[in-house]
Amino acid sequence: MNGPRFDPAQVFQVFGMRHVDTAGFDAAVAEAPGADLRCVFLWGQDCYNCNLFKQAALLHRETLLGLGLTWFEADVYADEPLGRRFSLHGVPTFVLYRAGKRLGRITGWPGLPQFTAAIRRLQDAASENSSQAS
């Protein structure tokens, strides 16, 4: 019996990932207004480790969607200048922004527990900062 075939491209639709490239990156991600936590998934076509993330993301979609991230994606094999901008040495890489500030990056797919813990730390830091400002 064969189950449904894994289609890594489904991850873009499931997570509502908006495509970004070198030309529009700053306007869409870095300079866009808002306090949402933006996660840019930098990946490459036929990248084994990128497909591992895509498969894990689809298997654990509820958990990842529950993080409330605004997702973007870019194939840095096709857009090499964007990869150079972030001095990438491997993909997948996840770059995180909020309100025009780059908060950090996760290189490689560390697995669901480590990824969600890193995102939660950023969210907790943001809520602490907003409560101190009021």
Automatic annotation (TrEMBL):
It comes from the Bacteria. This is Thioredoxin domain-containing protein.
